[in-house]
Design brief:
heterodimer; A: alpha+beta; Translation Initiation Factor IF3; 4-stranded mixed sheet; B: Hypothetical Protein Ychn, Chain: A; 5-stranded parallel sheet; 6 helices; 5 strands; 38% helix; TusA-like_sf (chain A); TusA-like (chain A); Sulfur carrier protein TusA (chain A)
């Protein structure tokens, strides 16, 4: 269950990542940020973002053109 | 883990080429890099408070056009403004950030901006015309930044 949900639908690279980073900044350790995006490039980008920043990508899925991610702040 | 550093030299001042340095800088900052952009030559246009960046289809046969357009038509007065308006509309429609927004986000995320003093003088730009909080320096300063950087890009 996500603590905060970020609507990044309609935004293109690099905005979903920048908005996610901003949202994570205000969150507490262990909290989960959910992100909804429509940028198809976001799938690889969120993987890379998490592997480089120590955040954990706990969920990544896609349904009807909307990509859904859950990221846990370390 | 030591903080990674990115140094970019940004030399271009058209609307389209203002994007790569700002997209890479803001993304690197989101990845916890310490980022410095050294703006020189036409790149200084991106630092203007009242920036009025344009794109030109001239000399750029790779630019996708809505209809095929002979070069002789592209040189007509007003074509540059028209191409710029169309590009801005397309970008907004596709959810691409504006240069103003990206610059604001870059500054918010502590991207360090250095303006090349030599080209500021060359083009007779005043410091007041350019964004506040810039550092003014030359090539030697860039090398000081570059030799500390993990990644150096020339754009």
């Amino acid at each position: 269950m996500a603590d905060i949900t970020l609507d990044a639908k309609g935004l293109n690279c690099p905005l979903p990542i920048l908005r996610a980073k901003k949202a994570l900044k205000d969150m507490a350790s262990g909290q989960i940020l959910a992100i909804e995006a429509t940028d198809p490039g976001s799938a690889k980008d969120f993987e890379s973002f998490c592997s480089q920043t120590g955040n954990e990508l706990v969920k990544a899925s896609e349904a009807a053109g909307v990509f859904y991610y859950e990221i846990r702040k370390p | 883990m030591a903080q990674k550093r990115l140094a970019i030299i940004a030399t271009k001042g058209t609307l389209d080429f203002a994007y790569p340095p700002l997209i890479l800088a803001t993304t690197a900052a989101a990845l916890d890099y310490e980022v410095t952009i050294f703006w020189t030559f036409y790149g200084l246009q991106v630092l203007k408070k009242n920036r009025n960046l344009k794109i030109s289809p001239l000399g750029n046969p790779a630019m996708p056009m809505p209809v095929p357009m002979p070069v002789l038509v592209q040189v007509l007065p007003g074509m540059e403004s028209m191409a710029t308006i169309m590009m801005k509309q397309k970008m907004a429609g596709k959810g691409v950030a504006s240069i103003d927004d990206l610059m604001e986000m870059a500054i918010e995320s502590d991207v360090k901006m250095i303006a090349c003093q030599m080209t500021v003088d060359l083009f007779d730009f005043k410091h007041e015309e350019l964004l506040d909080g810039l550092e003014y320096a030359g090539a030697a300063r860039f090398f000081e930044v570059a030799q500390q950087a993990d990644i150096v890009l020339f754009i």
